[in-house]
Amino acid sequence: MLRITNTHTGKKEPFIPLEEGKVRMYVCGPTVYGLIHLGNARPAVVFDAFRRYLEYRGFKVTMVQNFTDIDDKIINAANAVGVDYKRYADRFIAEYWVDAHLLGLRAANFHPRTTDYLPEIIDIIQRLIVKGHAYVADGDVYFSVKSFPRYGELSNRKIEEMLSGARVDPSENKRFPLDFALWKAAKPGEPSWESPWGNGRPGWHIECSAMSMSLLGESFDIHAGGNDLVFPHHENEKAQSEALTGKPFARYWMHNGMLRFSGEKMAKSVGNIFNAREAVMRFGRDAVRLFLLSKHYTSPIDLSEEFLQDSRKAARRVRDTLKRAQNAGIAEKFVKADPWVMEVESRFEEALDDDFNTPVAVSLIFELVNILNTALDNNDEERAARAYDLIVRRFGPVLGLFDLQEEERKRADEENLFDSVMNVILDTRNHLRKQKQYELADQIRDKLEKLGIKLMDTPQGTQFTLDADG
RNA sequence: GGCGACGUAGCCAAGAGGUCUAAGGCGGGGGUCUGCAAAAUCCCUAUUCGUGGGUUCGAAUCCCACCGUCGCCUCCA
């Protein structure tokens, strides 16, 4: 039985979807005003893996991840470079896909963008006004927090306590300081849409309510995102959605902890960002995913180049072992689900069933790497094949790790010639070794190592690995 | 000030009442293998879990206090 921490109750709860065997989940996606950084990549990677695990567990998953393609930051950034907001957003959505591919993120079932949901947004706002949960004020529309008694329930805050710290922009026409904008009247020169209240654009929170309920229904199973979104974003989403439908909105709220860089949360406003793209280029996909999945998703995680380097080395060890197994012909063998395999699988499932404990799942892969190496050393093909199968075909795909085919594809077109050249060099060097001209042979090895090509003389012949493998 | 998370080996990180003299990774030391390396493998590297009390037959795990770090309360994944 899968159990997950539900922010709503603050407890680990058994996960029981609304509809048996099916899971409908919504993950808050990026606001597309720049390249995503590793802090943005954390929920993307974590919930990508979580979705894969749900599927591994036999659930039919419908996953939605949105793009916020209209907001102040986008408008300002677009103005700064002199293009309209849409062109700007389009560009960074395209860039997002590049990064998503680098990170090994599977596409969700739906990737809606805010500006494609204006009719739905306007409809919701209108119905909220009719029901008395929202009011129009000078072209703006606000949600009336006082009209929803459960307000504060998700983030565990009391209205009175929030009032003391509330800041109100004098330009706003709120009746109550905690009310929030559903619709913002257009300022001169801003992109805007027609509405019953005049031209304007949607507020931040309403888009997620509109897109999630349109695609997943008024009630769905999981709503996920970074824990910095709990308040106000998710609290507001929940309030407006439930005020509208009278039904529970998301039943489980999952929130990942923040990524810290130089002691602080990674954020553009702090200026301590590390682009996801750069991280993958420098350390490799597996290192980045391994780093992100090596700590429980709810905890804060500290980033440093050293930690990425550690992950890179660990990932590399796994890959080297897998390649070693492939060279030994282990990959072709078929594996039966014997008691040992089933026992390891149940340990994997036990870990991930416990609030998606990826660190333990990862540690299991390393245990298997050990077993695989030992089996290879002992020519125990049966055991090697079992371990290989579990790593590459069972556990790896759930965590989005160690996709060797992907590696091959990446290099196939550019490295055929390279491999041929390497073979010439290695043949020559082995010839020298046979003649016991070790000094020359070692010189070749040292020089190649300086170029990032590491040689290994094994009984099966000389092999090499490239630094660029990550 | 309110709400919340966290503090485990040199570093990263699981464990949440007895199977813990605490998983896994990185690093370090030693052995095997090797022409020498590399890779692999074996052994060692926390009698101890921020500090001080308490509960219990028994605590890293529960309770209290204290110290420290971070997050949210404003845009933020």
Structural commentary:
This protein has 470 residues and is an alpha/beta fold. The protein has 3 domains: 254 residues, HUPs (Rossmann fold, 3-Layer(aba) Sandwich), CATH 3.40.50.620; 95 residues, Anticodon-binding domain of a subclass of class I aminoacyl-tRNA synthetases (Four Helix Bundle (Hemerythrin (Met), subunit A), Up-down Bundle), CATH 1.20.120.640; 59 residues, no CATH class. The chain contains 15 helices and 15 strands. It has a 4-stranded parallel beta sheet with strand order 4-3-9-10, with helices on both faces. The protein has a 4-stranded antiparallel beta sheet with strand order 5-6-7-8, with helices on one face. A 3-stranded mixed beta sheet has the order 12-11-13. The chain starts with a strand and ends with a strand. The model has no long low-confidence stretch (mean pLDDT 92). It binds one RNA strand of 77 nucleotides through helix 1, helix 5, helix 7, strand 12 and helix 10.
Radius of gyration (CA) equals 26 Å
- Beta content: 15-25%
Could you say what the CATH topology of the largest domain is called? Rossmann fold
Please describe the biggest sheet, giving its number of strands, its sense, and whether it closes into a barrel: 4 strands, parallel
Query: What's the shape?
Result: elongated
The strand line-up of the biggest sheet is 4-3-9-10
- Give the number of domains: 3
Name the structural class: alpha/beta
Poorly predicted parts: none
| CATH first level of the largest domain | Alpha Beta
Helix/strand order:
EEEHEHHHEEHEEHEHEEEHHEHHHHHHEE
Number of helices: 15
Please bin the fraction of helical residues: 40-55%
Termini, distance in Å?
A: 36 Å
What is the name of the CATH superfamily of the largest domain?
HUPs
Strands, total number = 15
- CATH architectural designation of the largest domain: 3-Layer(aba) Sandwich
